[in-house]
Amino acid sequence: MPNTPPVKLTKKQTLIQTVKYFLFAASAGLIQGITFTILTETGVFRDSDRKYGPSYLIALVLSVIWNFTFNRKFTFKSIANVPIAMLKVFGYYCVFTPISTWWGNKITGMYPDLEWVQYATLVGTLLINGVTEFLFYRFVIFRNSINTNESGKKEEAKKSG
Description:
Elements: H1 11-41, H2 52-75, H3 82-110, H4 115-141, H5 150-160
Helix pairs in contact: 1-2, 1-4, 2-3, 3-4
């Protein structure tokens, strides 16, 4: 795909895009939360001093795949090269994951006897991740390919004509 300038979204399109992103992100968060809960409650990593980290990382990978797939197709309506777009997502998570795993282990390590702290930490991390990832998707990954799939082209045609 040639390097094209970003599409100028209307206020309505921007609002719809934001709402769609966060609905898909919420569903990814649900997947992450359920996976995290199963891994935490079944005691898969119970013998580890750092049981938050492995549960968090496995749950995160599942949610990222889900979130990327649906947001690429339905929110950003992009035909961006999937391997390149996923490489950019990987780059984002090369920064976000170590930092969020560090603060998750740090916070939960301060209160090892309070199980709810793990869940509160996860919720806070999900919120930070949701906002920063949306901005990264919107202004880095899909900046020049918004509304380039069939559905997006139709949307742009309606807007122009």
